[in-house]
Amino acid sequence: MPNNVQQINFHVSGMHCASCAANIQRRLKKLPGVKEATVNYGNHQAAVSFDPHATPEYEIGQTVAKLGYKAHIGVHDHGDLTEKERVEELRQLRQRLFVSFPLTVLLLIGAMVPGAPDWLRQSWLMWILATPVQFWAGKNYYLSAWSALKNRTANMDTLIALGTSVAYASSAFSIVYENQLAALGISQLAYFETSATVITLVLLGKFLELRAKGQAATAMKRLLKLEAKIAHVFQKKTWQDLPLTDVRVGDRILVKPGEKVPVDGNIVSGSSAVDESMVTGEGLPVEKKAGDQVIGATMNTSGAFEMEARRVGDETMLAQIVRLVEEAQGSRPPVQNLADKISAYFVPIVIALSLLTFGLWLFFGPDPVWAHALVSMVSVLIIACPCALGLATPTSIMVGIGKGSELGILIKNAEALELGRRVQTIVFDKTGTLTEGKPRVQDIQMMRTFSVQEQQELLGRVRTIEERSNHPLAKAIAQYINDKGIPSAETAPEIIDVPGKGVRAKDTIGQMNIGSASLLAQENIQIDADQAQFMPVNMSRVYVADNHEALVSFSIADTIREESASVIAALNHQGIQTIMLTGDTREAAQHVQRELKLSQVIGQVLPQEKEQRIKELQQQKKGVAMIGDGINDAPALAAADLSIAMGQGTDVAIATAGVVLLRPDLRLIPVTLALSRATMKNIWQNLAWAFGYNVLLIPVAMGALAPIWGITINPIWAGAAMAFSSVSVVLNALRLKTFRSHI
Q1: Helix/strand number for the chain, H first, E second
Q2: Less crowded by CB within 10 Å, the N or C end of the chain?
Q3: Mean pLDDT of all residues in the chain?
Q4: What distance in Å separates the CA atoms of residue 620 and residue 678, rounded to the nearest whole number?
Q5: Comparing C-alpha atoms, which of 22, 28, 118, 129 is closest to residue 73?
Q6: How much of the chain, in percent, has pLDDT values that exceed 70?
Q7: Nearest to residue 33, comparing CAs of 10, 61, 11, 56?
Q8: Among residues 655, 629, 654, 624, which one has the least CA distance to residue 642?
Q9: What is the pLDDT of residue 619?
Q10: 314 assigned to active site
Q11: Is 638 or 522 the better-scoring residue by pLDDT?
């Protein structure tokens, strides 16, 4: 994103349908300096990328307000706000249904039940009964339609308000001018039960829809409830119970057995087994000791330990996961563009079709022509409400991403969720991905004679240099020297990184080169064949040299993950090409290929070359996924169609990836692809139903079947069908909650 472009995410109150979201989005995109704007009706979230110099942030809020909605810019707890609004809207709907339902029942009995009491058949009484339903229970439809009209747009509420108003007004008109109409041979047109029933059914459908959407957000609710409430903090020479808002980085915290870890940090004393399933999805408790990281909101199952707070508040892993899940649930997959394009023109087209229907029935319909024309027009307006179309994609996305978070898969945007089903090639990094990422020094070889003191001084200098690197091999060497009890050198060296080969360092004693044989060759330092002892291909060798000769070498090995072979076999069985990219020698890469039966390996690849390799694979027009964990993987992750980062990887890799595996388990990769396919299948089912519903039923409502079979749709049944369509889409999306992983 350019430096002058900012992005804000905020909650929007007052949206009633997909057309509301489309209208807000369309208006925001017209603001100067706005690069992109998305508004999601599914979770009432908006995301706007804009140039603050062209359009200030407050102007975005004002634009939303002018449309009749409210933008909660600067409010971070979107999930809580959404839930509060949902609960309040449910309460209001319950109140309106409490009034409209019995009144509608009375109207239906009076109009349709043979043998109903005469007093229920009185037109004036029916008018009185229908009025509170029309203007109190249905007032929000008028308010929303009026707001849309002021902004020269239309939405679903426009159709409801227009359709029910026509039925109500024509009925009232026929009562007031009953004698005059009778003189013209036009019988009384009383359809109060129709307008009341449509409003009641729409309210009922909205009520059921909101309840179902509440179930769709259960994953977010569970995440938000995970946090501990207090922390035992050591202050003023005593342990004090403080709320989490008062915990600061560096605080010393006591975590007792059976308590939740309050914030992210490192254990400084004690040990325990920590249940991390609520964050990572890992079912078994993880053993923790001094120096290990612990995650806020996880459960301490056994021993007590003291920890140092490293991340608090919005910086904790849980807070970041919640924020990313919210943003992802509000993002839009490319497939949503199809629904948006149709929704933008849908309402005006429906209004035009309703007027056409009225005219056709008026001129070609049977007697009473006015009654048939009016009923058919109202039926078209009611049955065509595009609510199901607007819910089809975002509801499935919300449930799918929520399900992923439950399984330990953090899907950072809807596009990544959609791309998963297209993957035909998966490219793996080796170290930390296919392997444990915790290499250990297996052997050390002094390549010339040193005294004990000289050897310790040399290794102390090496430790000082390697401790300043994040490379797994450097960490292994530093840890090995530390385990030998050899302290770091006192002077800090100047270090120059040589990507893919090692480092050059300079301290008060002189220059030192640490890295592969190719680094030494680059420095014209020879390695005698007698000194370079035989080493298995599954090991890496790191040399230490000064300006003239090699001094010492380390033989380092990394173990292949336990689940790597089964995951590769499962992917190969699905016809997915599996490739490993590594900076290791071709011999070492081929050893891993034989072990895991990978489709292909590419060895001796420098970090800057990984991106180019990904692009070459993409030219074969196959969906390419990249799985990595290191800084050197970031360019390749960014280039891949779908990028997946291991959760224990570097911040750069995690920030670049579209999917993050919250625990280091490769079995989550086929689960991710399966969840993507299941979610996209669910979306297409919803879209097919929403499109098919309108394509099939609008012509029927217009009367296309009347000349042949005499089939027409009454507005009451039109309202019921419209409500059922929306509820069925949400219920179908909720089926994703039953998705089962096979790990």
Answers
A1: 27, 26
A2: N
A3: 80
A4: 26
A5: 28
A6: 81
A7: 56
A8: 624
A9: 85
A10: no
A11: 522
